[in-house]
Specification:
The chain is α+β, with helices and mostly antiparallel strands and 127 residues long. It is built from four helices and six strands. The longest helix is centred in the C-terminal third of the chain and has 15 residues, at 106-120. It comes from Amnibacterium endophyticum.
Amino acid sequence: MAHPVMFDEDDPLLARVRSIALALPEAEERLSHGRPWFHVADRPAFAIYGGGTRGPEKVMHPHAVLVHVDDDERPARMQDPRFFVPAYLGPRGWLGIDVDAPDTDWTEVAELLDASWRRSAPPRLLR
């Protein structure tokens, strides 16, 4: 059974995330688990739009960007209340950040997407 679509195609925040993510070399978008996933080449995803947390206090974050964070940055990011540990991917080093706050730092979002892209990109693109 296919997952239901869990985003609005006309979401202006998604459009902004797309413009940043798809500007990265060989980035492409695929629909998976009802959400936009961003990949580079045929590699694992480097970003996902939307997600949520697990557990007794499950919280949905429909306007969040999930990224794979460097291990050395993860502890500091987890101390920042803007970040959350997403369901399923959190144990693999991913964190989420909501982008629907009026004070969203889009430069920071772009840097997070770039860093996550670099973790997933093939060596030929990193040269």
